[in-house]
Design goal:
Helices cover 55% and strands 17% of the residues. The protein has three helices and four strands. The protein folds into two domains: 52 residues, no CATH class; 40 residues. With 99 residues, it is of the alpha+beta class. The chain is elongated, with a radius of gyration of 22 Å.
Length: 99
C-alpha cells in the first residue's frame, strides 16, 4: 500500500514537472491529498484539487542583493520594535501580578 502511495506521488510530481513548474496544475489523480510534499503544495479550491510549486525570493538573495537593502533595514527595525514590545510586556506583567 505504501509503495502504491509513493508511486502515485512520484507520478503526480513528474506530471507537474513535465507540464511546467510555473503553471498551476490541476490534480486529476485517484488520490486526493492536501498538504506539502517537498516543493509541491496540494490544496483544494473551488475549481477542484490543485497543485502548485513554492515561489518567492530566496533567503540568500534577500540577505545579499542590493535591491533588498530596504527590506533588510525594515527587518532590523521590526526586530528592535519586537524587543521593545517584549520589554514593555514584561514590565507591565510584573506590575499587574504585584497588585
Amino acid at each position: 500500500m505504501y509503495a502504491v502511495f509513493v508511486l502515485i506521488i512520484m507520478w503526480l510530481y513528474l506530471w507537474i514537472v513535465i507540464l511546467n513548474l510555473f503553471i498551476m496544475a490541476k490534480s486529476s489523480g485517484i488520490l486526493k491529498i492536501e498538504g506539502t510534499l517537498e516543493n509541491l503544495t496540494f490544496y483544494k479550491s473551488a475549481d477542484g484539487h490543485m497543485v502548485r510549486t513554492k515561489g518567492g525570493v530566496s533567503r540568500n538573495r534577500i540577505l545579499n542583493d542590493p535591491a533588498f537593502v530596504r527590506t533588510r533595514e525594515n527587518g532590523v527595525e521590526f526586530g528592535h520594535s519586537a524587543q521593545a514590545g517584549k520589554l514593555l510586556r514584561m514590565a507591565a506583567g510584573q506590575l499587574v501580578f504585584k497588585a
